Amino acid sequence: MEAKAIPLLTPYTIGRFHLSHRVVHAPLTRSRCYNNLPGEHVALYYSQRASEGGLLISESTGVSETAQGYPSTPGIWTKDQVEAWKPVVEGVHQKGGVFFCQIWHVGRASTYDYQPNGQAPISCTDKQITPEVLDDGTVEEFSAPRRLREDEIHQIVNDFRLAARNCIEAGFDRVEIHCAFGYLIEQFMKDSVNDRTDKYGGSMENRCRFALEVIQAAIDEAGADRVGVRLSPNSNYLDCWDSDPDALGLYMIHAMNKLGVLYCSMVEPEAVKVDGKVQIPYKLLHFRKAFSGTFIVGGGYNREEGNRAVSEGYIDLVAYGKWFLANPDLPKRFGLNALLNKYDRSTFYSPDPVAGTAYTPQVLLLNFGKTLVVPF
Question: Which family does it belong to (predicted)?
């Protein structure tokens, strides 16, 4: 199959940007930004995955000191952090790539150790996340949160506003607001967590108020054509689920349409295997039909399913995570239908700056179509 016939490699225009293909680098937490600062290895990672007219979305980047909950994740609330991001962004731009920054606040998904002065994590509630036993037998525990007072919420909205401003100052092309997967904004949105009785709790309109205030603040700072949003109405991560996820997702999408949000990003709630092959059941179709902007979806996609989803108009752009980790030149490999390097889950969150991603473009190009063995 020639590259021009591959749906994933057809051009697409998002806002003011003309993409040469539809293979998006998904936002991936790496836990390798020591002291919350991206270093040279981070710049190398993103530049290796950049391509002419290709879209990359950064790892989740904290908006304040209280936003932290995981080791060595980056921030963008200080001048030093903005300066540290500049060479990372420049490396992507030198390769002709388009770079968006995803900003977040983890809320109650944190511990005292990550919070300033050892204080309690903040949330819409004081309910603690249930401890979870991980695959390796260890137990993940989060500290009991402190319920934000209504008069404090404006400051958190302002943290997102300033973070959006800093993203643009650092050179990022656009900003993505992380409203998904059980973190602070979604804690407000979903009724399994939000037990407030003020104007930020109760009805769906009230529960979504904080999310929409954050999105509006980012738009006021950067412009509607510079703001995308990630949603996960069907997810139940971190004890965060909703009794009516379809209604919640559609409420947010209709509100985002009115605000002129550039794109909506989601993750497939389910991927199945039919005759041994991955198949996406298109369970997000009603959201896709409702949203008026660009629709980006990831989760479980391979080359074949990505091509099918684009060709059938189910989505505009396909986000790839683990395959991009192990294959920095993923769009080119898709074009050649070349073998893909296997990813190693044990390296996904390793503190080692190069574990799982120690490749050079020269080595990759010399090994197209062959099984490439690289130490993780």
Answer: Belongs to the NADH:flavin oxidoreductase/NADH oxidase family.
